[in-house]
Design goal:
four-stranded mixed β-sheet, binds magnesium ion, alpha/beta, 397 residues, Rna Polymerase Sigma Factor, Chain: A, globular, binds NADPH dihydro-nicotinamide-adenine-dinucleotide phosphate, 17 helices
Length: 397
C-alpha cells in the first residue's frame, strides 16, 4: 500500500508534535510532505532534520532566509517557502493525501479551507477555522468530498460514539443530544475575586492536558468549551440547545452521545491527544498511538457537575453567538483572540476577557456570513473594535 503523504500545518505546536510522534511510530504507512510553523525557525529546522519533508513553510521572508541557511548547512533538500499563499499551496497540493490542520487561531482558516476545497482528508484541530466559517466550511466539505475528521478530543469521542457510517457534515439519526465534557480548567473552584488576580502562568497550567498557551487560556475561561459547542453544532448538525456541557474534572470520559432509546454512549481514555490523532490518521482502521491503556482501578471515581456560567460567562457568550448566527461566531472568536493575547501580555485581567468580548459584540453590527470575504471583514472589524476598547479595560501597563 502506498504511504499516505501528510502536510502538518502548525508542526512546531503541541498538536503538531503529537502528530509527528504518532507518525514516527508508523513510517511504513505515512510520510511527511510539508511541515509549517510561524516563526520558531530552530524548532522547524530540527523537525526537518528528523522528518525530511519536501517543503517547509514559515510566515515571513526573514524567517525563511534563516531557515534556508540552517537547512543548507545540513545539506537538506527541503524547499523553504513563506507566507499564507505557501500555506495554501502545501495544504492543497496534488501530492498531499492528508492535512493536519493545527495552526492556532484565525491564521489557520485559509489553509484549512484550501485543504477542504481540494478534497483532502482533513484532520481538524484548528477549531477556530470552523467556528469562524461554519456553514461555508461544511458546505465546502460536502461539495469537495473531503473527509473531515475531528481531532479535538471531545468531537473525536462523539465521532467514535456515532454509527460507523456517520460522516461529519451529514445529519445524525436518532440522536437526542450530545454531552460535551469539560475538565473545568485550572480555575474550576476559584472565586471571581481570585480569578481577577490570576496570572498567565496560573492560567496556562492546565490540570489534565498539556497544550499551547492560547487554548490553555481558553480552557481556563471556558471559552474553549464555548468554541467547542459551536464546533459540535457544525460537525454533527446540532442546535446549541441539544449540546449539554458537563464538567468532568478527571477528563477520562471525552464526551457522550445520547440516543432516543435511552442509550448513552461514551468514549473513555487517558487524556493524551495522540489517541484522537491516531484515529484521524488511520480511520476507519486503528493503530497504536503510544498511549498507555486506561486502568480504571487507578482512575478511581468519575465526577460530574454543571458549568457555572456566572463565574465563566464565555460559555454563555459562545452559545449566544451560535444562536445569533451569521458572522457573530467569527467576531466572538476574533475578540477572544485579542483578549487572550492581551491577557498573556499582562495588559488585561483574566476576568475582563469576557467583558471585552461582550462589549465588542454589542457595539458592532451583525453581518450574515454568506461569503469568505464577509467573514474575513467581520474578523477584522471585531479585532479593531476589541483593540480600541482595550485601554478602557486594560491595566494601563
Ligand atoms: P500551539 O500554540 O502549541 O501551536 C500552534 C502552531 O501554529 C505552531 O506551529 C505555530 O508556529 C503555528 N502558528 C501560530 N501562529 C501562526 C500564524 N499566524 N501563521 C501560521 N502558523 C502559526 O497550539 P496547539 O498545538 O495547542 O493548538 C493548535 C490548534 O489545535 C488550536 O486551534 C487548538 O485550539 C487546537 N487544539 C489543541 C489541542 C491541544 O491539546 N494542544 C486540543 C484540541 C484542539 P510557531 O511554533 O512558529 O509559533
Ligand atoms: Mg477539546
Amino acid at each position: 500500500m502506498p504511504r499516505q503523504r501528510i502536510t502538518i500545518l502548525g508542526a512546531t505546536g503541541s498538536i503538531g508534535q503529537s502528530t509527528l510522534d504518532v507518525i514516527a511510530r508508523h513510517s511504513d504507512r505515512y510520510e511527511i510532505f510539508a511541515l509549517t510553523a510561524h516563526q520558531r525557525v530552530d524548532a522547524l529546522a530540527a523537525l526537518c532534520r528528523q522528518h525530511h519533508p519536501r517543503y517547509a513553510v514559515v510566515s515571513s521572508s526573514d524567517h525563511a532566509l534563516k531557515l534556508q541557511a540552517l537547512l543548507s548547512a545540513d545539506r537538506l533538500a527541503t524547499e523553504v517557502l513563506c507566507g499564507e499563499e505557501a500555506l495554501v499551496a502545501v495544504a492543497s497540493d496534488a501530492g498531499v493525501d492528508t492535512v493536519m490542520a493545527a495552526i492556532v487561531g484565525a491564521a489557520g482558516l485559509l489553509p484549512t479551507l484550501a485543504a477542504v476545497n481540494a478534497g483532502k482528508r482533513v484532520l481538524l484541530a484548528n477549531k477556530e477555522a470552523l467556528v469562524m466559517s461554519g456553514a461555508l466550511f461544511m458546505q465546502a466539505v460536502n461539495n469537495s468530498g473531503a473527509t473531515l475528521l475531528p481531532i479535538d478530543s471531545e468531537h473525536n469521542a462523539i465521532f467514535q460514539c456515532l454509527p460507523g457510517n456517520f460522516r461529519c457534515g451529514s445529519t445524525t439519526v436518532n440522536v437526542e443530544r450530545i454531552l460535551l465534557t469539560a475538565s473545568g480548567g485550572p480555575f474550576r473552584n476559584w472565586t471571581h475575586e481570585a480569578m481577577q488576580a490570576a496570572t498567565p502562568e496560573q492560567a496556562v497550567k492546565h490540570p489534565k492536558w498539556s497544550m499551547g498557551r492560547k487554548i490553555s487560556v481558553d480552557s481556563a475561561s471556558l471559552m474553549n468549551k464555548g468554541l467547542e459547542l459551536i464546533e459540535a453544532c457544525w460537525l454533527f448538525g446540532m442546535t446549541p440547545e441539544r449540546v449539554q456541557v458537563v464538567v468532568h474534572p478527571e477528563s477520562i470520559i471525552h464526551s457522550l452521545v445520547q440516543y432516543v432509546d435511552g442509550s448513552t454512549m461514551a468514549q473513555l481514555g487517558n487524556p493524551d491527544m495522540r489517541t484522537p490523532i491516531a484515529l484521524g490518521l488511520a480511520w476507519p482502521e486503528r493503530i497504536p498511538a503510544g498511549v498507555p491503556p486506561l486502568d480504571l482501578f487507578t482512575t478511581g471515581g468519575l465526577h460530574f457537575e454543571a458549568p457555572d456560567e456566572v463565574r465563566f460567562p464565555c460559555l454563555r457568550l459562545a452559545r449566544e453567538a451560535m444562536q445569533a448566527g451569521g458572522c457573530v461566531p467569527a467576531m466572538l472568536n476574533a475578540a477572544n483572540e485579542v483578549a487572550v493575547a492581551a491577557f498573556l501580555d499582562g495588559k488585561l485581567r483574566f476576568t475582563d476577557i469576557p467583558v471585552l468580548i461582550e462589549r465588542t459584540l454589542t457595539e458592532l453590527p451583525m453581518m450574515a456570513a454568506l461569503e469568505l470575504s464577509t467573514i474575513l471583514a467581520a474578523d477584522r472589524s471585531a479585532r479593531e473594535q476589541a483593540i480600541r476598547l482595550l485601554p478602557a479595560l486594560g491595566r494601563g501597563c
